[in-house]
Amino acid sequence: MRKSSKVIALLCAGLMALSLMGCGGAQKQVKSTGGKVQIQYWHVAAESFGGATVKELVADFNKSHPNIEVVAKYNPDMYKGLTQNLQAAIAAGKSPDVVQMGWSYLNYAADNFKYTDIASVIAKEEPKDKDFFTKNFLPNVLALAQTDNGKQIGVPYSISVPVLFINPELFAKAGLDPQKPPKTWQEVAAAAKQIKEKTGDVGFFMQEYADNWAQQAIIESNGGTMLKKVDGKVKAGFDTPEAAAAYQLLADMVENGSGLHATNEEGFQAFLSGKVGMVCTTIGKRANFEKSAKFPVMVARFPVFQGKPLKVPAGGNFLMMFSKDAAKQKAAWEFIKYLESPEAMSKWSTGTGYLPPIKNIETRSTVFKELVKNNKNVQVALSSMPSLVKWASFPGTNGLQAEQLLIDARDIILSGKDSAANVLKQTADKVNSLL
Amino acid sequence: MHKSNWQAWLFLLPATLLFLIFFYRPLIENLYLSFFQWNMISPTMKFVGITNYHSIFVSAELLKIFFNTIFLVFILLILNFVLPYIYSYILGHLITKMQSFYRSALFLPSTISLAVASIIFLWFYNPIAGPLSIILNSIGLESPRWFKEDGLVIIAIATIIAWKSFGYNLIVMLAAMVAVPKELIEAAKLENASNWIIFKRIILPMTSPTALYVFTITVVFGLQYMLVPVNMITQGGPNQGSSNLVYIVYQYAFVFFQTGKSAAFAVLTMIFYVVILVAKYKFIDKKVHYEN
Prior knowledge:
The complex is a heterodimer. Chain A has 20 helices and 14 strands. Chain A is an alpha/beta fold. Chain A folds into two domains: 197 residues, D-Maltodextrin-Binding Protein, domain 2, CATH 3.40.190; 198 residues, D-Maltodextrin-Binding Protein, domain 2, CATH 3.40.190. In chain A, helix 2 packs antiparallel against helix 15, helix 5 crosses helix 14 and helix 19 packs antiparallel against helix 20. Chain B is mainly alpha-helical. Chain B is globular.
């Protein structure tokens, strides 16, 4: 009895040691196989958000490039989730090669991540591509992926703009003409009120993702700003009467019942089931909305304020490179070039609703030409491209917390607990103490 | 006794090693991190002393988050401890027909993942198009914005967690209920004892060890399960209305990447748990009746 228990104890200890060793050994195998260079591509495209297109593009690239193998990895929770995973991966010394970085993380990524400078990779590995940036992009689009001091840290890949999605059936029921969607925010408020009074359903919902993208669009379209520079230092710029007036307009709609204040998913669910007249969100949801709604979804331009210019922040992502050794850098550059080609770009745009950032794509790709011709919603979105501005990105190590403070402010304003002017002032003070 | 000591140590060794490596070492490392300003990737860790703790104690968020945590635990105890307790008594001793149907029907939701449950409840609570709002509208009430109001949001989150853990807690409690010897109850009934007296004098003491276990896992698991619905639906909002001591640790570490402040919050959370455990040991453990 004694003896056998000793043996069992030893066996157990041995098994444990073995299993611990197993843990360490398993990770090494993932490297290159059979002379192929393997690179990792991190994206945020869920199945309902272009995931199938990513798979198609990667398979296509792997087939036409026998010496490179791209492995795609989906990161849940959009750009926040990807940035979190990336930060953890870099901390562990296992960075991916190509990633989709959200525009609002531009400054954070530039300040905190050791990325690979694509221009110097081109100069070293593929000098023939030295005109790639100027040949393919308009200057204002290229500038989206530049930091404040003009450094190009990535390549623009997906562009989205906020638009107004409309339920034409609810419009008609309320006695409004869906062919003449509201053009100004005053008209939006009036239409929302009319929908509420005539049908009992809610008139308007603005997206409440864990970011302030759409809210930035309405603030800047009223002449406000998110950030300002004081003595070369970035400060909160949203404590102005213009910003407050824009936000108050949204809060008043919620207050009188014609606007909805809910979580983002709740708002979209309600819209898709025909209970909300207008939803202000990204054109990136176009393909998904057109497929899921019971009614023919219509897209209208992001409304303006009377007599003021339209300003829409660019949403979506740009591609950054994190490869360390030369072979992988070369392969990663090859892959980026493929993703930015007119053919691949057209597929990506069709599968998601994103707008392609590259120049003259209508003349370079017949697929895209067809898409624009047949889908009026895409035309509307494209028409706001000249009004693109940068998505405000708070700099420094506390930048991400500053973004959260604005999300908290949104909840306070829309729930009517305090006036927009007061809340924005308090939030600006808090943000300034963080920056 | 002394001779065989080494054997005892040998048997203890695997568990001790696991504990030291995976439980106590991280605790110490966490304490160390809480004195630094660091974002996990920067090569330089800046020593800041107790600044992280100081900034937590002077901020308004600590109090709000502390009370959110207490409120969440309170609701969870009602939904996942008191209710299963009553249900298991009814199922074990008062109902005789269709017992197995009730058991499986009440256990079923526990098998569904929390992520799925979160999506289902997000739809259920939808203030415009959800089934609950339709019911409320039909009796002339307007649905509140469940996930956008202070207080309500915690109740809504708690019901999602309850959906997940109610069934398991019920089955565990039920096992204790049916283990109460039938003879005792029969004897009491012969003496004309009411259901209430039977419950108070026999059931309550006989099931107390299991009840204590269910009480503990309600608090500990509840605060872990919370992460999925909070992260999926509210991200701690509105204005930190659904944040709590556990979520804030996650938020500072993996959303804001402020490792030091997150570690400081984690230390405070640990102290909170220690206080609860000591209280439990002092006031509850002594009242529990263990058979052997």
